[in-house]
Here is the input.
Amino acid sequence: MPSEIWLHRCCAASPPTSSFPICPHCGSMGTYQALKLSLVEKMCAYAVRFGLKPVGLHRPFADQIMLPLVERCPRCHGVGVLGMPGTRSVRCPVCDMGCSIPKVSDEEFQLARQTVITCYPKAATPGWRPLSERTGGRKVM
Ligand SMILES: [Zn+2]
Ligand SMILES: [Zn+2]
Here is the structure.
């Protein structure tokens, strides 16, 4: 589950952000800032985004090739999920929780992914489909 990020400007002693609305130090209410994916969810997002495993020897190479091909999802602002405080968060319908969306054509994106897989055959996540197939066409909101 993604956690909420709350900003606490009340106390210098307490960390400025936490996943709780109430400041653990003085008990005053913080300001809701955003949702944040857990580390595991961030790793899932990487796999969703690129169809590549988030961990492995291929990562530096894959990042070099794949990262320039995507941009931050305009709908969820790169968070991957949508939600307001106290409500259940939902998977972002634009990036499908990938946090970023391709800014190149499907063909170009697939070609780059294939380049990574050719060099590192174990990097592929099986059964991955391009974002446009998963979300039924490119939607930018
Ligand atoms: Zn406080
Ligand atoms: Zn999104």
About this structure: Residues 39-134 form one domain.
